[in-house]
């Protein structure tokens, strides 16, 4: 004897029902009971019909007509014309009955739980009769079993409890006396001892099948649905969810209790009691292995079996100083909830005993508040207990696995992952069986939580990084090219999948959660919406994506202002833009603190020396306990280019123009030539070294005549041309001494200074060519011979690669 159950999608239409019959023909010999759900979506529509009728809304008739047509069409598409009439008239007759009931509801303007169950029972009654008639018409006779007369329950309509003694003997007797091989029964429906129809709870057809399997001591129960079995997480939320080949009864029960909808939670009970194995199989891919649920020996090293989540949760907190040490408070709380038949999903009590927290379904909140505040009325009046505190819009996420108890560190990892992704945990519970750890979090974070936990516990292959980029000019464009080029390498060697989910320039923005194509991103961005910074940031934040990084490749002050709001949402920030780090110390410090507080990364390696590892090296020295004595550096690619190329033969203004044309300068080259850019850089290094330094505290010996700072960039070029003699004199003075000119930045004893210096051939700075930068770190460990970082310090390619390295760094914490 086997019992098979087919779910709503499996019987949603004639084509799917044909697949069901194929499975029955192919896979089954011997006696078989087949339990059928309502056609997909029908139960919801029946509920809707009832509520419309009860609220005097005549459109209930339209919903009914639509339902009737759908069932009649299914019969017509399935049965041979010559054999349709009896099935069609059965369907029509059921709809007549249903219409009468609904009309009564409409007239009375009232829908009792009993009538509601009666209405929704029609879904399964219809579907199972259609399947039975079709099977009989094309294959062989079968017997339709009226589950209402076999499964006896109490009168708790909508969620009736089964009387197993009566039920088991009725089912066994009915099947035993029949000569048929195949029985078809409606799922979900039952009746109480008065003979009134009841239902077993939403999703209850699974339970019906388990009840049959238990009563008949079946050799197996098969749950046929629309996925390849139980998976490590809900596949609608986690694209990388994996099939679970085998799972224990307890694990399956915990996963379904905490929301894995693939099995209705009470289903496991009757089969577990009799050790009947359960298969979960896919109607649309019967060749797939599916999941086997049984008393399974645990697999070495597999500590976690799956992750599930439950939405529409509310948290109730009963608090008060009067609760401490007095027995009976929790008993009264739970009695009050039980009396109202409110299901408690999770409980936590702090050891101080002055608060008990319970999670319940959102729909039960009003009833719960009334019941609990009523029970504790006297204590509330006496000020010993506060009125019940309610938090809505929550979810429960649960990590499930039999082996958890033998393995320390699971909860540490779980909460570490949640914390790093900025997910606040409202309450935690670990079952005494240590088979699950569950946490109550905001509904808005639930999908992200399940995704990141799945990644941490199951996806050893890949980590996914969601990247938002602002600025797609010279450096930004190169960055995207480099990402495209390195995609395969990152996947293969770093196990990293990088997705650009948002992109913006000063005119347009584009947000695409599934990822923007790296091949034609320019065209895609052009077709995007007009850029509006606040909406761009709000959209990026509201997606609440895991492992998110915001990359600023602009030189824009407004963009530098949004970092705080991103870090506070645990979104890492990678800035090529120097404005934030070189603005007032308070803002720089605030961003650093936010990054620490919200477990995000704030990285800006390219602020100094483009792609050279300057800030990273400084941080490594400090982290490992070294102390900085002095930093000396040549940090302006532009100024190096200019002084390396200027020897008085070609006018200074022309050399500067060439530097600008080759892309080494800021849009206004005076920021480079006036030393401001170098001041910013040495200040950032000083700040990273722990000094609270501001721009106006840095000494700057200008070499540009003051007249050069007046007017526009073009005026600047004209003025430089006029001042050629001044630049020649600067050059000659140094050359006469055998020295080169370099613009040097120094940080020593808490003070920073920048200015043009004569560099003799013995200096580390003498042999510095092209746009190279150099930084000398004199430290306690490198007192005489400094640690030197030297190389190309400007250019789109190297800057992009520095930004890229920072992006990857955010993923590898
Ligand atoms: P049926 O109508 O066949 O009873 P359900 O819709 O009740 O099907 O349950 C199957 C659905 O359960 C799947 O389509 C899937 O989206 C969802 N689901 C949630 N969690 C899980 C999980 N851990 N494994 C498999 N499916 C899951
Ligand atoms: N048709 C019912 C429901 O949708 C029962 C089931 O499908 O399992 O809840
Ligand atoms: Mg189901």
Q: Which percent range describes the beta-strand content?
A: 15-25%
**What proportion of the residues is helical, as a percent range?**
40-55%
Shape designation: elongated
The largest pleated sheet is described as: 8 strands, mixed
Radius of gyration: 36 Å
Please indicate the count of domains.
Answer: 4
What CATH calls the topology of the largest domain is Carbamate kinase
- What is the residue-mean pLDDT, rounded to a whole number? 93
Q: pLDDT under 50 segments (min length 5)?
A: none
Structural class: alpha/beta
Strand arrangement, largest sheet?
A: 3-4-2-1-7-9-10-8
Q: Given the structure, what is the number of helices?
A: 30
> Which CATH architecture of the largest domain?
3-Layer(aba) Sandwich
Report the CATH superfamily of the largest domain: Acetylglutamate kinase-like
Task: Specify the CATH class of the largest domain.
Answer: Alpha Beta
Bound molecules: adenosine-5'-diphosphate, aspartic acid, magnesium ion
| Number of beta-strand segments | 29
Oligomer: single chain
Distance between the termini: 54 Å
Catalytic activity: L-homoserine + NAD(+) = L-aspartate 4-semialdehyde + NADH + H(+); L-homoserine + NADP(+) = L-aspartate 4-semialdehyde + NADPH + H(+); L-aspartate + ATP = 4-phospho-L-aspartate + ADP
InterPro entries: AceGlu_kinase-like_sf, ACT-like_dom_sf, ACT_Aspartokinase, ACT_dom, AK-HD, Asp/Glu/Uridylate_kinase, Asp/hSer_DH_NAD-bd, Asp_kinase
Function: Bifunctional aspartate kinase and homoserine dehydrogenase that catalyzes the first and the third steps toward the synthesis of lysine, methionine and threonine from aspartate.
Keywords: Amino-acid biosynthesis, ATP-binding, Kinase, Lysine biosynthesis, Metal-binding, Methionine biosynthesis, Multifunctional enzyme, NAD, NADP, Nucleotide-binding, Oxidoreductase, Sodium, Threonine biosynthesis, Transferase
């Amino acid at each position: 004897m086997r019992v098979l159950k087919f779910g709503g999608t499996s019987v949603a239409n004639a084509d799917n029902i044909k697949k069901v019959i194929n499975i029955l023909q192919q896979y089954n010999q011997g006696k078989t009971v087949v339990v059928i759900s309502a056609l997909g979506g029908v139960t919801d529509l029946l509920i809707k019909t009832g509520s419309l009728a009860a609220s005097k809304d005549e459109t209930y008739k339209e919903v009914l007509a639509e339902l009737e047509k759908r069932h009649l069409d299914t019969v017509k598409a399935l049965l041979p014309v010559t054999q349709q009439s009896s099935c069609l008239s059965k369907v029509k007759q059921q709809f007549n009955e249903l219409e009468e009931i609904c009309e009564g509801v409409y007239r009375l303007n009232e829908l009792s739980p009993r009538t509601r169950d009666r209405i929704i029972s029609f879904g399964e009654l219809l579907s199972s009769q259609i399947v039975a008639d079709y099977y009989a018409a094309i294959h062989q006779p079968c017997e339709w079993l009226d589950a209402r007369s076999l499964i006896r329950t109490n009168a708790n309509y909508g969620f009736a409890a089964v009387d197993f003694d009566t039920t088991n003997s009725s089912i066994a007797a009915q099947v035993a006396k029949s000569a048929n091989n195949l029985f078809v029964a409606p799922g979900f429906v039952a009746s109480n001892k008065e003979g009134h129809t009841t239902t077993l709870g939403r999703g209850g057809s699974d339970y019906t099948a388990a009840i049959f399997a238990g009563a008949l001591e079946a050799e197996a129960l098969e749950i046929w649905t629309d996925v390849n079995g139980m998976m490590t997480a809900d596949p609608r939320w986690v694209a990388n969810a994996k099939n679970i080949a085998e799972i224990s009864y307890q694990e399956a029960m915990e996963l379904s209790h905490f929301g894995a909808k693939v099995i209705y939670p009470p289903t496991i009970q009757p089969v577990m009691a009799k050790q009947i194995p359960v298969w979960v199989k896919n109607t649309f891919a019967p060749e797939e292995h599916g999941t086997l649920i049984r008393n399974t020996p645990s697999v070495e090293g597999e500590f976690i079996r799956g992750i599930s989540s439950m939405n529409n949760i509310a948290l109730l907190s009963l608090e008060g100083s009067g609760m401490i040490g007095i027995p009976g408070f929790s008993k009264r709380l739970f009695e009050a909830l039980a009396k109202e038949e409110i299901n408690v999903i999770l409980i936590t009590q702090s050891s101080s005993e002055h608060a008990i927290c319970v999670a319940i379904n959102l729909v039960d909140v009003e009833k719960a508040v009334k019941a609990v505040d009523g029970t504790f009325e006297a204590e509330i009046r006496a000020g010993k207990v506060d009125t019940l505190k309610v938090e809505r819009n929550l979810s429960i996420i649960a990590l499930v696995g039999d082996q958890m108890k033998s393995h320390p560190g699971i909860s540490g990892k779980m909460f570490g992952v949640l914390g790093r992704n900025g997910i606040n945990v409202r309450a935690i519970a670990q079952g005494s069986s240590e088979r699950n750890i569950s946490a109550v979090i905001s509904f808005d974070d639930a999908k992200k939580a399940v995704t990141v936990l799945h990644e941490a516990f199951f996806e050893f292959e890949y980590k996914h990084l969601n990247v938002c980029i602002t600025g797609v000019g010279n450096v930004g464009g190169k960055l995207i090219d480099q990402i495209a080029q390195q995609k395969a390498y990152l996947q293969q060697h770093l196990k990293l999948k990088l997705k650009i989910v948002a992109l913006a320039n000063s005119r347009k923005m584009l947000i695409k959660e599934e990822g923007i194509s790296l091949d034609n991103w320019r065209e895609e961005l052009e077709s995007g919406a007009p850029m509006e910074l606040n909406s761009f940031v709000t959209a990026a934040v509201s997606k609440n994506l895991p492992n998110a990084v915001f990359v600023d490749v602009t030189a824009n002050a407004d963009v530098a202002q949004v970092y705080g709001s991103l870090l506070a949402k645990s979104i890492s920030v990678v800035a090529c833009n120097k404005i934030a780090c070189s603005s007032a110390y308070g803002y720089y410090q605030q961003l650093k603190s936010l990054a620490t507080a919200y477990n995000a990364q704030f990285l800006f390696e390219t602020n100094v020396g483009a792609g050279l590892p300057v800030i990273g090296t400084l941080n490594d020295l400090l982290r490992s306990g070294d102390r900085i004595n002095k930093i000396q550096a040549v940090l302006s690619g532009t100024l190096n280019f200019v002084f390396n190329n200027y020897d008085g033969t070609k006018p200074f203004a022309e050399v500067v123009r060439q530097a600008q044309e080759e892309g080494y300068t800021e849009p206004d080259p005076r920021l480079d030539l006036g030393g401001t850019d170098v001041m910013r850089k040495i200040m950032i290094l000083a700040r990273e070294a722990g000094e609270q330094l501001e721009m106006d505290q840095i000494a700057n010996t200008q070499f540009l005549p003051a007249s050069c700072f007046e007017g526009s960039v073009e005026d600047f070029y004209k003025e430089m041309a006029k001042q050629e003699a001044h630049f020649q004199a600067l050059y000659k003075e140094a050359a006469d001494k055998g020295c080169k000119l370099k613009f040097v930045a120094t940080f020593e004893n808490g003070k920073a200074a920048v200015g043009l210096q004569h560099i003799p051939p013995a200096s580390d700075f003498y042999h510095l060519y092209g746009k190279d930068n150099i930084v000398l770190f004199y430290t306690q460990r490198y007192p005489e011979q400094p640690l030197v970082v030297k190389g190309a310090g400007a250019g789109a390619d190297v800057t992009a690669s520095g930004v890229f390295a920072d992006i990857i760094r955010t993923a590898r914490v």
